[in-house]
User: Fold this.
Amino acid sequence: MAINREYLGRTFPAAQPYEISRVKIAEFADAIGDPNPLYRDRAAAQAAGFADVIAPPTLAIVVSMAGSAAAVADPGLGLNYAMVVHGEQRFEYSRQLRAGDVVTAQATITDIRDAGRNVLMTTKTEIVTVDGEHVCTAHSTLVERGGAA
Amino acid sequence: MSAQVAYNDVEAGTEIAPASYPATRLSLVKYCGASGDFNVIHWNERIAKAVGLPNVIAHGMFTMAQAGRFVTDWAGPGAEVVEFGVRFSSPVVVPDDDTGATIVVSGTVEEKLDDNRVTLALTAKSGEDKVLTRARAVVRLP
Assistant:
């Protein structure tokens, strides 16, 4: 099944606010095998100038995926997830996520194009606190292998 | 966590010593849970092979996380990552054994920018395969 080109440019409403907890940050840091104390020890984070424990830079993908999930899971888009691999990923940070942040993620499909037998879909997801502070913009390109129209 | 790097002490062209990070089946299961990405190709060998992959593969974001760790370990606790991007050029294939795969990350200080920022050019390999290309991080140093 091919990806539905009519979804190009579509913006999906911001996902439910996502609260970044210390427990989530520590769990994610454990999962990536990173022992950095900035992700677990509030005193260490404050000594480095942060208000609280910060998140590893790539934790932003968890929030970003919460935003793009609505797009990826939309049956009208026609994405075959078992054939999907990650093509590219880029983050622009105003600052790192930290414990206590409550953020939303709003995804826009910015590109859909064929590349040989594959189809590439790029989304831009804005991660913003509920108070309106920009934290991160995530650009994700997914590759559906063999999905070219 | 390494010592703090200062902007004034950094020179373009400086190479950063490579570091190795393991990726086992357990790593992937943990990453599935922590990230919420349960795509079957990261944990189900039967389906991974049925859809044409050599075996279960690591999440691209797991590999990117290792490159991120390389950056933050080098930059030190007082640095801030302001931009980070990669292209996933080849999958990290994770066999069902006790060793798994090894991701080797290396890097170079590519350029010094204004506002205390530096650009790092990164490479990541698993075996002979370049698993990341166009990998760059911009960090702001004290």
In short: The first strand of chain A starts at residue 11 and ends at 12. The two ends of chain A are 8 Å apart (CA to CA). The CA atoms of residues 120 and 143 of chain A lie 5 Å apart. Chain A has a mean pLDDT of 93.
